[in-house]
Amino acid sequence: IVAEMRWTEKAVFEATGVKLKYMRPPYGDINNRVRYVLKKLGYIPVDWTGDEFDTNDWQLPEKKMTEAQVIAHFSKSIDTYAASNKTKGFYCLEHDLTVETVSVAQKLIPLGLAKNITFANVGECESDASPYQGGTGPVATATVSGANPSATGSTSPRATASTTPAKNANGAEKTAGSVLAIAGAVAAVAGLVLA
User: Fold this and answer.
1) pTM of the model
2) pLDDT tens across 103-154, in order?
3) Largest CA distance in the chain
4) Digit-coded pLDDT (tens) for 73-111
């Protein structure tokens, strides 16, 4: 765990100049030992809310799901969320591993926007004014107009608070607007969160 986190930390720092504070355990696989090690390394694990908020986009390259199926699954998750308890936030799992997963993310963003979901980063959803270890660092910003959203870096720190709870990987209630996390390429390294 330590070696993987330190290598990742080094790569992210060399690419962005920041040391991340939040991380998503691969496959959502976490136990108390992993939580302890991550805490000692200065990390806070954040996991997606549940299976309904796993877009399954990782199945696109292997042709186990089609883009239309991923979009339909996401749309159903958003509709179910909107019809039930819109005061509680959520995190949604997406990947930026391939052209296919990035492409589908660019289609999911406008779908979320059409359902009145807005973007924020994980630090904002956690009401964290210092979302990076050792300071605020640059924050990725998203341009979400039209059919081709994009992400760009910014060196100005950004922090806002929202007031609705979501659970993190520790199982604790956290302050987070209607939260939808989108990792990596769509939002540079910082990730995006629909709130």
Assistant:
1) 0.64
2) 998 998 898 888 888 667 788 888 898 889 987 665 544 444 444 444 444 3
3) 44
4) 999 988 888 787 666 677 888 888 899 999 998 998 898
**Can you tell me the distance from the alpha carbon of 120 to that of 143, in angstroms, rounded to the nearest whole number?**
12
What residue type is assigned to position 78 of the chain? Answer: I
Q: How many residues does the chain have?
A: 195
DSSP run (H or E) holding 167: strand 165-167
What angle (nearest 5°) sits at the alpha carbon of residue 182, between those of residues 134 and 152? 65
Query: Which residue do the tokens 């209630």 mark?
Result: 173
Residue in the structure block whose two tokens are 């979320």: 112
Q: Which residues of 96-113 are buried (b: 16+ CB within 10 A; e: fewer)?
A: beeebbbebbbbbbeebe
What CA–CA distance (Å, rounded) separates 18 from 189?
10
Residue burial 50-87, b: 16+ Cβ < 10 Å; e: rest: eebbbbbbbbbeeeebeeebbbebbeebbeebeeeeee
